[in-house]
Amino acid sequence: MPGPDKPLLSVLRGQKAEKTPIWLMRQAGRYLPEYRALRAEKGGFLNLVYDPDAAAEITLQPIRRFGFDGAILFSDILIVPYALGQDLRFEAGEGPRLSPPLVDAALAGLEAVPGRLEPIYRTVDKVKAALPPKTTFLGFAGSPWTVATYMVAGQGSKEQAEARRYAYRDPVAFQEILDAIASMTVDYLSGQVRAGVEAVQLFDSWAGSLSPQQFEQWVVAPNARIVSDFKSRHPDVPVIGFPKGAGGKLAAYARGVGVDAIGLDETVDPAWAAAELPDGLPVQGNLDPLALIAGGAALESAVARIISAFGERPHIFNLGHGILQDTPIAHVEQLLKLVRQ
Ligand code: CP3
Fold first, then answer.
1. N or C, where is the chain less crowded by C-beta within 10 Å?
2. Which among 36, 45, 202 is the best mutation to test ligand 1's pocket, defined by most ligand atoms within 8 Å of the CB?
3. Which atom of ligand 1 is nearest to the CA of 244?
4. 208 lines ligand 1 (CB under 6 A)
């Protein structure tokens, strides 16, 4: 049983902490020289993900350097489309490529390869054996809408227009894509838990591009299904939902999805969230990654504002989205000092 010895996990279970626990989205990555060195040696991002020793090492790098309260598994949200049978490439400077894109090919033509998830579970196993006892181990997956935007377009797309157009043209086929992602995602998260993660986060990075009705249909409904299926297998494992860009729809998300905690991006006013989100719901966030790059007094006042706004709620300190590549290490150190003061 996780006791008070894991501060981040306690907050996810609804307890208020004396000292706000902290981790950062994308904390394992290119702003770290030790990450860049290992990536150069292994010759590419997917080579790292599919080498459990390297992926475990990268998961642990930010824990060793900074002592964050949470370690997030090193992998990517696009591993699920890969397991659904699309080919996946990451080329330097180009971003991810999935083929065939589902604008050109039917989902039914893909042959799922669930074995592509197995090496990730070996990474979890290795991290678990090496993690400090106070550190909470977080797994993750992308949410169906966000993952579908990549599966449909075959790559990142401006305002997710390819996927939105596709869904207007063929709502039935689009719903089938969301359902296939949701099913694979429940298996994937469940596999991560069986291998040793203690909580999971659902990244809906593109939740902000939808109308209220689409948000209900493609964000709230599929995430609610994932949470309910996941909870029937793992009732005690907390789920963090991160519907980036949801703004005024956050309260509907919190009520409709059934997450244990909600991630807030930097466009959300902490005072609004503190007042409008369901009582007692733990929140995570929401420092602007650019304030972390700025450092100094700007960082100090931004951190103070967030900590004081969430004083009455269980709160996990994080960024509003992933840490940027040109973030100075010294500013991450300053942030940890400020949060732990
Ligand atoms: O947070 C962590 O440290 C854990 C690992 C993690 C990665 N990606 C590693 C990664 C997590 C949780 C993700 C999530 C992810 N991946 C999201 C959702 C969150 C977000 O940032 O909005 C999305 C949309 C992706 C898809 C993805 N992966 C893109 C568009 C790219 C290319 C753009 C970029 O930032 O390089 C990636 C590559 C990627 N995923 C890298 C890392 C460390 C960079 C790989 C490299 O070049 O070394």
1. N
2. 45
3. 22
4. no
CA-closest candidate to residue 63, choices 97, 98, 34: 34
Count the helices and strands in the chain (H runs, E runs): 16, 9
Tens of pLDDT, residue by residue over 113-134, are 999 999 999 999 999 999 999 9
pLDDT digits over 177-212, tens only?
999 999 999 999 999 999 999 999 999 999 999 999
Determine which residue's CA is closest to atom 10 belonging to ligand 1.
76
Tally of residues, the chain = 341
In the chain the first and final C-alpha atoms are separated, in Å, by 28
State mean pLDDT over 163-174.
Answer: 97
Centroid of ligand 1 to alpha carbon of 30 (angstroms):
10
Tell me which of 23, 24, 25, 26 to substitute to probe ligand 1's pocket, judged by most ligand atoms within 8 Å of the beta carbon.
26
Catalytic residues: 26, 30, 39, 76, 150
- CB of 249 within 6 A of ligand 1: the answer is no
Q: What is the rounded average pLDDT of the residues 325-331?
A: 98
Alpha helices, DSSP H only, in 238-309? 250-257, 270-276, 289-294, 296-309
Summarize pLDDT for 1-43 with one digit per residue, the tens: 544 489 999 999 999 998 999 999 999 999 999 999 999 999 9
pLDDT at 220 over 80: yes
CA nearest neighbour of 286 among 236, 244, 237, 227: 244
Report the atom number in ligand 1 closest to the C-alpha of 206. 22
Rounded-to-integer distance, Cα 227 and Cα 229, Å: 6
